[in-house]
Amino acid sequence: MHGLKALSLLGLLSASAALAQAPGLGASVELVDPHVLRVCADPHNLPLSNEQGEGYENKIAELIARKLNEPTSYTYFPQVIGFVKNTLNALRCDVIMGVALGDGQVQTTNAYYRTTYALMFRPGTGLDGVVSLSDPRLKDRHIGIIAGTPPATVLVQNGLMALAKPYPLMVDTRIDTPSRTMADDVAAGRIDAGVLWGPMAGYFGQREEPRLTVVPLLKETERMDFRIAMGVRRSDQDWKRKLNGIVAESSAEIDGILTAYGVPLLDEQGHLKAK
């Protein structure tokens, strides 16, 4: 037993020494492999990402890899509690795509897009022209809402929660996709409208038949819009600066990818960008 403990301790010391001697690692972690863009992502979370590389965050990661002249590799893990711990902080990957600017779990880069929650409904059902959750035409309507998201507060303020249909916020995306389910329910007439994070509303809304009307919520009393960045380890200052440079030079290309997926994009003044 003492021998096993000694061998175990020796192994730990050897690993620590190797880590400290590796370029960019040790006390100040940077990139485990500086020649590969190693991305942390959810394997079943369209329109953001999936294992087939079909999400817009996959496409933006590919763009960054081309700018770096590097291949891309992924560590996939459901984006639930423990995601950062089991991916980025475990040194299994070096960047998380699609993190809210200022997220406390990671160090964030500069934002590469800004978007907002949106209202979606079937055209021709009496809601055409609605641009705010305070519109009286929403009274007595059944509205879908992801539980615990900012628009839920606005629904309460406007007396719309009594007839609202809640959908879960935290799910295993391998099993359930509440955003897609809500869009399906709106299209089928099971609910009158739905409020979703803009990228979800834009992506799923344009895939329904008939195509759903998606209205970015820009006039609410509560904050609906957020800037989205990439997340890196707190120690990775050089890596963050490199990503910031790529974001700055690639804004038009990134906007093009996002627009193709139906993401409502806002400019720095909070106005909707022209498509």
Summarize the structure.
The protein is of the alpha/beta class and 275 residues long. The chain is built from eight helices and twelve strands.
Describe the SSE topology.
Layout: H1 2-21, E1 37-41, E2 44-45, E3 49-50, H2 56-68, E4 72-76, H3 83-86, E5 95-100, E6 107-108, E7 113-121, E8 143-146, H4 150-157, E9 165-167, H5 178-188, E10 193-197, H6 198-205, E11 213-216, E12 225-232, H7 237-249, H8 251-260
Parallel strand pairs: 1-4, 1-5, 8-9, 8-10
Antiparallel strand pairs: 2-3, 5-12, 6-12, 7-10, 7-11, 7-12
Helix pairs in contact: 2-8, 5-6
Describe the structure.
The protein has helices at 2-21, 56-68, 83-86, 150-157, 178-188, 198-205, 237-249, 251-260, and strands spanning 37-41, 44-45, 49-50, 72-76, 95-100, 107-108, 113-121, 143-146, 165-167, 193-197, 213-216, 225-232. It is of the alpha/beta class and 275 residues long. The protein folds into two domains: 28-113 and 226-260, D-Maltodextrin-Binding Protein, domain 2 (3-Layer(aba) Sandwich), CATH 3.40.190.10; 116-216, D-Maltodextrin-Binding Protein, domain 2 (3-Layer(aba) Sandwich). A hairpin with a 3-residue loop joins strand 2 and strand 3 (49-50). Helix 2 packs antiparallel against helix 8 and helix 5 crosses helix 6.
Corresponding CATH superfamily of the largest domain: Periplasmic binding protein-like II
Distance between the ends: 68 Å
Indicate the CATH topology of the largest domain: D-Maltodextrin-Binding Protein, domain 2
Main β sheet profile? 10 strands, mixed
**Topology order in helix (H) and strand (E) letters:** HEEEHEHEEEEHEHEHEEHH
Low-pLDDT segments = 1-27
User: Whole-number radius of gyration?
Assistant: 22 Å
Mean pLDDT comes to 89
Shape summary: elongated
CATH class of the largest domain reads Alpha Beta
Secondary structure tally, helices: 8
Share of helical residues? 25-40%
CATH architecture of the largest domain: 3-Layer(aba) Sandwich
The share of residues in extended strands comes to 15-25%
- Taken together, the total number of domains comes to 2
The structure class reads: alpha/beta
Give a count of the beta strands, DSSP E runs of length 2 or more.
Answer: 12
